[in-house]
Amino acid sequence: MLKIHILKRILISTAALFAIFVIYLIPNNNDIYVSLDIKDDFKKEYVYLLNDNNLLGRASVYVTSENTNDLISELIDVLIIDGKKESSIPNGFRSILPSDTLLNGVIIDGNKAKLDFNFHLLDISEYLEMPMIESILYTITEIPSIDSIEISIDGVPLTKLPKSNINIPKVIDRDFGINKIYNITSLSGITKVVEYYVAKYNNNHYYVPVTKYINDSKDKIKIIIEDMVSSNLYEQSLMSYINSNTKLVNSTIEDDTMKLFFNNSIMNFDDNDILEEVIETISLSVKDNYDVSNLVFYVDDKEFYKSVIKSIE
Question: CA nearest 250: which of 269, 282, 225, 230?
Fold first, then answer.
């Protein structure tokens, strides 16, 4: 009898402990509500970080800053090696700014951001000096209200990279380029065109811009589509998802809108749609080469898809 009584007490105690454990694991409604509130405080922004091939790729991170000055500081923190925002960096990417870099201050002057860093910004190898500037430039100009930057070191404007001895403009905008490739045979008739390609890390894809300097007088959109069509595998693990039979039949710009007319080979015939990767690579490329706000895809002269690529301030 005593053994049965003890056994019952053990079973009751075990059941009570299990119930407490379950209650502890399952949050109540208030916990869920708070969690959702915290999530709502975050917004997605884009930064340009090094990938495994030392190319700068477009990565998304979540930030909390509301005003532009604070947002710039938060984005710069992502770019700093072992910085405050290291945990927010997606897999497959790494920061580029030296670990002791500090952003002394930010001044917004119209659509320009003046960034003053401490001298540790220049504690970087000659090979990475140019990508470092490109990373800062492209990250900060992803903010819709900013289209150019000025960089200074402890109050002194940075106009030459000390290790590579490359002169850089005092005011830098996206004409400066990123992941530059020079494929020229003459110093006359040079065209600069920015093309976005797809890269992958495990099962996640992202976009990598390449600035090409070439001797080609065609319209940039024709160059972009021809390059993307000519080779599905570009170089250094960059890909284009555009079908090799795709043809750009015509293109026009009217009322701040670019219209692109394709044959039906641009379609993914498995689901009678245009692949997201195709739309994104073309849209991002148009955004960096043309001053338009909207992009419309036509297939066999019928409007198929409209993309807003630039917000109107």
Answer: 225
Domain ranges of the chain: 42-174, 180-308
Q: What is the pLDDT of residue 27?
A: 40
* C-alpha to C-alpha distances, 128 to 74, 89, 119, 145, 157, nearest whole angstrom: 22, 19, 16, 27, 19
Reduced 3-state DSSP string for the chain = CHHHHHHHHHHHHHHHHHHHHHHHHCCCHHHHHHHHHHHHCCEEEEEEEECCCCCEEEEEEEECCCCHHHHHHHHHHHHECCCCCHHHCCCCCECCECCCCCEEEEEEECCEEEEEECHHHHCCCHHHHHHHHHHHHHHHCCCCCCCEEEEEECCEECCEECCCCEECCCCEEHHHCCCEEEECCCCCCCEEEEEEEEEEECCEEEEEEEEEEECCCCCHHHHHHHHHHHCCECCCCCECCCCCCCCEEEEEEECCEEEEEECHHHCECCCCECCHHHHHHHHHHHHHHCCCCEEEEEECCEEEEEEECCCCC
pLDDT band at 235 (very low <50, low <70, confident <90, very high): low
CA atoms of 127 and 79, how far apart (whole Å): 17
195 contacts 178 by C-beta, under 8 angstroms: no
Residue 29 has pLDDT above 50, yes or no: no
Whether 119 has a pLDDT exceeding 60, the answer reads: yes
* Structure tokens that stand for 292 in this block: 């338009």
Q: What is the pLDDT of residue 290?
A: 96
Q: What's the rounded Cα separation, in Å, for the pair 253 and 295?
A: 9
